[in-house]
Design brief:
Elements: E1 7-10, H1 20-35, E2 39-42, H2 56-67, E3 73-74, H3 90-102, E4 106-109, H4 113-125, H5 149-157, E5 163-166, E6 173-178, E7 182-187, E8 195-197, H6 205-215, E9 220-224, H7 231-240, E10 249-253, E11 256-257, E12 282-283, E13 290-291, H8 301-309, H9 324-330, E14 341-342, H10 345-357, H11 361-374, H12 381-391, H13 398-403, H14 417-423, H15 426-439, H16 447-460, H17 465-477, H18 485-492, H19 494-507
Parallel strand pairs: 1-2, 2-3, 9-10, 11-14
Antiparallel strand pairs: 4-5, 5-8, 6-7, 12-13
Helix pairs in contact: 1-9, 8-10, 11-12, 15-17, 15-19, 16-18, 17-19
The structure holds glutamic acid.
Residues 11-13, 45, 205, 209, 223, 227 line the site of glutamic acid.
Length: 509
């Protein structure tokens, strides 16, 4: 196994939008594969047709693309070992279930849903609420271990519905070494004879998952902790199917926890906790409910991915900002924590802010210009860049550039009440009138020139900044605070600056 090319898979079930924990699982698979020079495969596990949700598969694919964690192979990405959607592999699974029966590792069970309900209820009434189909109880059920061969054949010939169950040995320790958790050992007395093949002719997750991992030559199974209880069953399936020497290595990733550390961050949390749990917005086709996504909330995919990488792993150094390529180099499954990883929304915002700050003014200008044009505001690239450069220190998101800068695009219709009350008086009015005269004389209306002219006005009249600055800002922007007024005036231009002073003199008391 050690010489085989690394092949890992992300195997979501299309039962709804992909939760951010799912994206993290995909990310860790991707990072591991890329680092090892291996392949990352996307397999859609849709054997449970009752839980199928339209649009979920496309959503999964779009999410991975948005994050830049592109599969090398798989549903929607091509490859030689497909199809990569389990419902299209339906014909493949039956023979493995038959092999298991033939070799004594599985059996037919004809118990109806009512039969099972009845025995569960009886067990409950007798004080054991967790009835299991196992080496003890199966002896009194309708299965091919109890019924005569002819009776079994008769039922099969009559087309009676049945399932195929794995036959677990009594009191057997199943052990495997998990890359994250170390040795895991479970006794079969604590497991049940899981259904491998259903009456609808479809395999269950367990059988399909093992068969596909084998046929797709998967070397490492990296998945969420919620699948750890299934792993011993999977180990037995490898053994019973005769593939134990090719069994992939397992790595079960820690859970994502709610910010208060109390319990798992679940899909059901939606926007309830004040942040999205999904990468992209999701419109539930059945209920019409809309759940917000990181993309629509203005997160950069690089920031989202960087944040996710740190939910369960860290490089062991102080460095926190990692591009996907850098993550690929630094990542190691050995450094993944066992303990659940608490989601921290402020930290997520912080990551976005870091990525925003690291962009060039040109990049920011382009993104900002696009956002403005969505709002029906058309500005030049030069102006968009200048505003973005001025506002970026205060911004976490591109849309913050707009929120804080709307005064560039429209003249004030209201004026900050507190600043008006405290700073707007006869003196302030007078200074603004003087400044208007001085500014109209500046030929080259640049920030440095405006700054110079403003400062010499203060000097000449022995005034402190606080006597003039706030009133001037109020007049031009309507605000009490903001970035450099000289930069703002330069971006607005001479005529507009003067027009705004006139407007303020007319509107303010
Ligand atoms: N289909 C399973 C899921 O939805 C895959 C679990 C696994 O990776 O084995 O998560």
């Amino acid at each position: 196994m050690s010489n085989a090319k690394v092949r890992v898979r992300f195997a979501p079930s299309p039962t709804g939008p992909l939760h951010m924990g799912g994206v993290r699982t995909a990310l860790y698979n991707y990072l591991f594969a890329k680092q090892q020079g291996g392949d990352f495969i996307l397999r859609i596990e849709d054997t449970d047709q009752t839980r199928f949700v339209a649009g979920a598969e496309d959503y999964i694919i779009e999410s991975l693309k948005w994050c830049g964690i592109q599969p090398d192979e798989g549903q929607g990405f091509g490859g030689d070992l497909g199809p990569y959607r389990q419902s299209e592999r339906k014909h493949l699974y039956r023979k493995y279930a038959d092999d298991l029966i033939e070799n004594g590792y599985a059996y037919y069970a004809f118990d109806t849903a009512e039969d099972l309900d009845r025995v569960r209820q009886m067990a409950k009434d007798a004080g054991s609420p967790n009835w299991q189909y196992n080496h003890v109880t199966r002896n009194s059920m309708k299965n091919s271990l109890n019924l005569s061969q002819s009776e079994v054949q008769k039922r099969l010939d009559a087309g009676e519905p049945y399932v195929i169950r794995i036959k677990l040995n009594r009191n057997e320790e199943v052990k495997f070494e998990d890359i994250v958790r170390g040795w895991v050992s479970v006794n079969t007395n604590n497991m049940d004879d899981k259904v491998l093949f259903k009456s609808d002719g479809m395999p269950t997750y367990h059988l399909a998952n093992i068969v596909d991992d084998h046929l797709m030559k998967i070397t490492h199974v990296i998945r969420g902790e919620e699948w750890l209880p299934s792993a011993p069953l999977h180990v037995l399936l490898y053994r019973y199917l005769g593939w134990e020497d090719k069994m992939p290595q397992f790595a079960h990733l820690p859970l994502l926890l709610k910010p208060d550390g109390n319990g798992k961050l679940s899909k059901r949390d939606g926007d309830r906790l004040g942040f999205p749990v999904f990468p992209l917005e999701w419109n539930n086709p059945e209920t019409g409910d809309v759940f917000s996504g990181y993309r629509e909330n203005g997160y950069f995919p690089e920031a989202f991915v960087n944040m996710l990488a740190f939910l369960g792993w860290n490089p062991g150094t102080e460095q926190e900002i990692f591009s996907l390529e850098q993550l690929t180099e630094a990542f190691s499954l050995q450094k993944v924590n066992k303990a659940g990883a608490r989601y921290d929304h402020d930290k997520t915002r912080w990551f976005n802010q870091q990525y925003l700050r690291s962009k060039t003014d040109q990049e920011l200008g382009t993104l900002f210009k696009d956002l403005l044009s969505d709002k029906g505001l058309n500005v030049s690239q030069e102006k968009a860049e200048a505003i973005a450069a001025l506002m970026k220190e205060r911004a976490y998101f591109i849309m913050d550039l707009y929120k804080e800068s709307s005064f560039f695009f429209e003249r004030p219709s209201t004026y900050d009440e507190k600043t008006t009350r405290k700073k707007w008086n006869e003196d302030a009015k007078n200074h603004v009138v003087q400044l208007k005269g001085i500014f109209s004389q500046i030929d080259e209306f640049k920030a440095t020139k405006i700054d110079e002219a403003f400062k010499s006005y203060l000097n000449d009249n022995e005034l402190g900044f606080g006597k003039v600055g706030p009133g001037f800002r109020l007049a031009v922007t309507g605000k009490g605070m903001g970035p450099s007024m000289f930069e703002i005036c330069a971006i607005l231009g001479k005529d507009e600056t003067i027009a705004r002073i006139d407007l303020a003199l007319e509107k303010l008391p």
